[in-house]
């Protein structure tokens, strides 16, 4: 009997959280679909600025260093 209750509670939790998870999946895919062409346009229109962005993002030293 306890297993059935555990399964029912898990099913309710999954059903309650699935809309929130679906929202985040759609939001992340939508952001990626927007940012990829936007990044390509910036890299074509402003190659020096894009090079600066790449250098700052992929450098070994970051603003958030581990203490």
Notes on the structure:
The protein has 67 residues and is mainly alpha-helical. The protein has a domain at 2-42. It contains two helices and no strands. The protein has helices at 2-45, 47-57. α1 (2-45) crosses α2 (47-57). It comes from Candidatus Competibacter phosphatis.
Please give the share of residues in helix. over 70%
**DSSP helical segment count:** 2
Uncertain parts: none
Beta strand %: under 5%
**Rg of Cα set:** 22 Å
Structural class: mainly alpha
What is the averaged pLDDT score? 84
* Biggest beta sheet attributes: none
Number of strands: 0
> SSE order, as H and E?
HH
Span between termini: 50 Å
Task: Assign an overall shape.
Answer: elongated
Task: Looking at this protein, list some descriptive labels.
2 helices, mainly alpha, 67 residues
Question: Layout of SSEs?
Answer:
Blueprint: H1 2-45, H2 47-57
Give the gist of this structure.
This protein has 67 residues and is an all-alpha fold. It is built from 2 helices and no strands.
